[in-house]
Amino acid sequence: MPLALLALAIGAFGIGTTEFVTSGLLPEIADEFGVSIPTAGYLTTGYALGVLIGAPILAILGSRVPRKAMLMALMGLFVAGNALSAAAPVFSVMLAGRVVASFAHGAFFGIGAIVAAGLVAPEKKAAAISMMFTGLTVANVVGVPMGTMVGQSAGWRLTFFLIAGLGVLAVLGIAALVPRQPRPEQARIGGELAAFRNPQVLLAMAMTVLGFGGVFTMTTYFTPMMTDAAGFASSSVTWLLVLFGLGMVAGNLVGGRYADRALMPMLLTALAGLATVLALLPLAAHNKIATVIAVPLIGATGFATVPPLQKRVLDQAADAPTLASAANIGAFNLGNAIAAWLGGLVISAGFGYTAPNWVGAAMAASALLLALVSRALERRTGARGGAGAAGARGGRVVARQESAPERQYS
């Protein structure tokens, strides 16, 4: 794999740390600002909605900027948002900082996925995408547990200042390791939007919302679930997050490897596993051993869906990938926002901290159903996974042939 993928993984590591670290620090943040746990959960919802809104906007605004420069600019925005959160005097300002940081998230992964896929041969695209997302998953093994430990012992503000420092390192890493990118062709908005007339693109994004969103019904309220329901000490949250992160790393790598071989079977298997484990967790949560088994399984099955879902969108929108790729990253976070919101509702209704997992199981099962519909539609129409924007313009394939530099670097 090209060394440039390491630079993308560095940026993904910083983003992954800030995205998930609030799960371990929710009680501390809620206590300092004097808000309830469900209200503090808006930090996850606000972040996710910021990704959803910012991903397509920044992808289009940056469509005429060289991709390397755009990635560096996005990480600069990430640094600013986390610094604002760290210094926030009131909860609303911290929420604003989370939204600012989140604007970088979707466009970074959307543009980064295109760059990663363009650096390797076509049969290795999903694996390359998974390598970039490895930074996101490793963040849950190293960044999130360390951030939680620092936040619980020295204050959550220090955690967010350190995350801003990670963003600075990511900018330096991209500058040093990512090869110079050619200036993209001027985006044709109509062409980019045409991809969304392809039913397979829409189905893939709906699967992203529901499938990956199911994971966040568990992660948003992870700390109170582990301490209040499962009976673990607060000090145990760190290593439980490490287990979850290890599952994420394994699932992401397996998903990337097998998505290049058999994309839909890999996706169906991961979604079925995710729905099953989420449905069982409310029962397992009252047994510590069962909980220790379930936590990494949720991470593995949840993140095994990421490479196949992102590759499917890129395949189905091959002639106009920038907006579709960024929008699918937004779809991941729309699912996160919905999951955090629904999880807060069932907790506020008095069903307990394990109840959000039932919501997550229902979301994952719905995504599985959509995946079966997508496969049936593909078989009926005779479409192929790499057919580009087939269906986006009356079923004709209009895949754009990129220039040699584009194939090499973007």
Radius of gyration equals 20 Å
Number of domains: 1
Return the CATH class.
Mainly Alpha
Low-confidence region ranges: 383-410
Distance linking N and C termini: 15 Å
The H/E string reads HHHHHHHHHHHHHHHHHH
- Structural class label: mainly alpha
Strand content: under 5%
At the fourth level of CATH, the homologous superfamily is MFS general substrate transporter like domains
CATH architect. name: Up-down Bundle
Mean pLDDT: 82
Can you tell me the CATH topology? Answer: Growth Hormone, Chain: A
Strand tally is 0
Helix % is over 70%
Q: How does the major sheet shape up?
A: none
What is the strand and helix layout of this fold?
Layout (H helix, E strand, L loop, with lengths): L3 H17 L1 H12 L3 H4 L1 H20 L5 H20 L4 H28 L6 H30 L1 H22 L11 H6 L4 H21 L2 H8 L7 H23 L3 H22 L3 H16 L2 H11 L4 H28 L7 H26 L22 H6 L1
GO molecular function: transmembrane transporter activity
Membrane topology: Multi-pass membrane protein
Subcellular location: Cell membrane
Task: Explain how this protein is built.
The protein is mainly α and 410 residues long. 78% of the residues lie in helices and 0% in strands. It has one domain: MFS general substrate transporter like domains (Growth Hormone, Chain: A, Up-down Bundle). It has helices spanning 4-20, 22-33, 37-40, 42-61, 67-86, 91-118, 125-154, 156-177, 189-194, 199-219, 222-229, 237-259, 263-284, 288-303, 306-316, 321-348, 356-381, 404-409.
